[in-house]
histidine kinase (Candidatus Enterococcus lowellii), 445 residues
Amino acid sequence: MTDRKKGAQFQLTSRFVAILTGLLLIVNVAFVTISLYSVYYYLADQAKEIATTLEEVPQATDDWDALVDVTIAKNEEDAVRILLTDGPTYYSKDGKEIFTELAEGTALPIFKGIILMEDEIYYFQRHQQQGRTVEIAIHGNTVIEMMMRMLVISVLLNLFAVLIGSWIIYFFVGKWSKTLQQMTQEMKEIELTNNQAKLLSVPETPSEIKQAASSFNQLLRMQREAMKREGQFVTDASHELRTPLTAIRGHVQLIKRRGSAHPEVIAPSIDFIDKESKRLETMTNQLLLLGKHHATQVCKEVDFSVLVQQEVQKLQASCPQEVTFDIQENIHMYADELELQQICQNLFGNARKYSAANETIHIRLQANETIQLDVADTGEGIPDEMKGRIFERFFRVDSSRSSQVEGSGIGLAIVASIVEKYQGKLSVADNQPKGSIFTVEFPKK
């Protein structure tokens, strides 16, 4: 029972009942208040109508007994008393007894003129007319009883509405709750079985649960893809790191075995060890750098135009190729400046490594619908079947060009990781007549 009370079906239904009951209570209080004032003004109008009728009677009339009886013809329980200034007092039928009892009744402070007796309610009103005083007592029991009957009927209808409403909301929330329970059960199955193909069932309604299930499935796919990439990364990293380590150990063993007898092998082996250890150091640093892109970075407004211009100047000073550029001014981004530098340095360095000394590198930065950075070289280009994989970690195009060029195969993966962080897009296309164009697009914010 405790678990049931904690469920969405019970809690939503109880809250609905509480809200509906509160609203109906307010409505009933308002109904009673309006009804009481309506009854009050109705009784006041009845008394005023009688007073108006008597006001039209001339002072010299001798038949006051008949007149006061006529005025209460609608309700014999009403009473009228006329006090002539220079004459006797006249009462309607049973009026004397009624006014005597009224004198002993209790007047309400809220509703002026209302007098309560043991089982009776009267509205009393006094009017000063020419030569006489008119006192009127309107019997209110009938109207009050009618109002009470309407109130009882209203309360019963309200209780009926609460019961029916509670059942309806309990039924529909139960349907939604079953959907949530099914989702929870499927989550447990995924957790226990580790089924990589299993996803949550996506209901058509309600839209909130549909959106939640779709978002969870999307998150699950992303997680599985990330785990798959990480598993592949571990495999590739272990292979890539093992290769230089194996070569280094081989040359160390060579020096141990033959160094004393053949000192001429020491110098080449030491050069090879130095080269491979530097490569190993570079690869390790890049791996650490690649793992930091999801950590907290210091973002601020960066003048991307100035940053690209500075990196182009560094490239012109350090490479033999001709470097041309077309940089639009005043392009700003909210990002980590070091990460934008890494994008430029990796793309520019990639173009320098794979372009001959007599070739040209062209860099363009512009902002239209997006912020777009293009790095074009006139090297050998990338085969179409390789374009989809060059941003993977450790992937290098298997050609004579790539085998002769130093590199870890991580630079473009670093660029792809940073671009993805800023919801950007990284792509590569053929340059004409030859070469490649790497394009980075960032959304304008």
